[in-house]
Amino acid sequence: MDAVAAATTISETAEWATLDAHFAEVRGQHLRDLFASDPTRATELSLEVDGLYLDYSKNRLTQETIRLLVALAERAGLRQHIAAMFAGETINVTEQRAVLHVALRAPESESILLDGTDVVPEVHRVRRKMAAFADRIRSDEWKGHTGKPIRNVVNIGIGGSDLGPHMAYTALQDYSDRWRTFHYVSNVDATQLWESLRDCEPDETLFIVCSKTFTTLETLANARSARDWLLERLDDEAAVKKHFVAVSSNAEEVRKFGIDPANVFEMWDWVGGRYSLDSAIGLSLMIAIGPGRFGEMLAGFHAIDEHFRTAPFERNLPVLLALIGIWYIDFFGAETQAILPYSQYLERFPAYLQQLDMESDGKSVDLDGKPVSYATGPIVWGQPGTNGQHAFYQLIHQGTRLVPCDFIGFAQPNHAIGEHQNLLLANFLAQPEALAFGKTREQVVSEGVAEEQVAARVFEGNHPSNTILATKLTPYTLGQLVALYEHKVFTQGTIWNIDSFDQWGVELGKMLAQGIIPELEADSEPELHHDPSTNALIRRCRGLMPDDTSFQRSES
Ligand code: G6Q
What we know:
Catalytic activity: alpha-D-glucose 6-phosphate = beta-D-fructose 6-phosphate
Structural class: alpha/beta
Largest sheet: 6 strands, mixed
Bound molecules: glucose-6-phosphate
Radius of gyration: 25 Å
Shape: globular
Helix content: 40-55%
Strand order of the largest sheet: 1-2-13-12-10-11
Keywords: Cytoplasm, Gluconeogenesis, Glycolysis, Isomerase
Family: Belongs to the GPI family.
Number of strands: 13
Enzyme class: isomerase
Strand content: 5-15%
């Protein structure tokens, strides 16, 4: 597909070899020395773009490292690959699809062509339909079956049809209409549906069934049970029309389910599930925060899209994050990437990025189907600070592993209460400092610590991190942050020459589950042909299962 793939793999290029040699020089250097030897380091290795500030100076690299990594990106054809994505080329090769989530946030004045057709007008047509519907719900003009306004919105979807809107709703709750409750039901474990519905009145509840394919087992099971719950209580098929809408590209399956075609919001096969927050998959969010604020979020996305598309790589936020990640993954051998937002509202951001990154770049064959000879996507994990500090930061500070961290914080609080914000910010600033500079044996000894206690109190430091600082968490900033990571993941996938937009790895387990369902449900002992371990587990489950597993809503 690109220059590298045709000739050789990226790890066999001269650019990679140069980085390898450079790594031998840099690996032993301590951040304390890197800062001491270069007084301009903090300013040289930081960058502000549209109010988003990235300080990457507390990383184990030099300006030369960035120069060499940029050369690697050039060699991998990143510039051409970015252009190919924005031009609607079929860059998702294993699924033979274009990848155009950037079109979802393009202003109406722009055009993005797919096979010669501009997709932007279609995007805006659906957005207007969403806005009209959201406004009707928000103004209480839309009435439920018994004439009451909608008080509860339940999004039913999984994976990309859940994680994005759920994360964004949680992040932007402060901008939402508090009169209504919002629930996100994804798990096929009935517990989640049961817990979501226990305080909802059916005639005040709207279900948004989000499924691009409308064939997903978990979503359809939850949607059917939700419909049963509604009809058991309202006892009239006509109620479905007032209480169910769908987001899907499969109009036929939606119709079979019984949802009014007028209440279907379209999406397209050129939007991948984990990149679909800005499509109609974000309908619940739009109902929560309103079309205007939803538009502000899209503007934040678009600003970073434009920056990514046009800025030189060494001044390009997503590219820098990607290159720094590659430096740790492929040269230092780091296995994970911690995401540490200092905002409770970003509670679900690590889980969202987990899918975005791990489903996109968790690949071991390249675009030509050949096994890669280098490490690809990291294990992404994290929790909001300061909670994580009292849980797992110990390992990052004093464990045996290298854990690159992204600290994300906001200068202004959403709620100014007492001195909370200063305490939060102080911790947000202190952790990267402690990780980078540590505490030497001499410092510990000078504090009068008994000799036998010294070793346990020494902090080696030299633990790398990025600090991302914005003024305040707003719809616009959230859009910027998500786009930043989307393009980071894309950049890394490009350099690794993998398909960041397929997810074949989720298929096998789904297929095997389909075979096990009848084995669990069979009245008499079924013949089992799995491995001995799985056979024994199926028999054990059958022996322990209750007789009636149908959905029951307890009145407790
Ligand atoms: C994401 C994946 C996946 C998908 C879910 C739900 O990129 O494609 O997480 O979003 O499997 O799929 P449906 O929207 O088709 O139900």
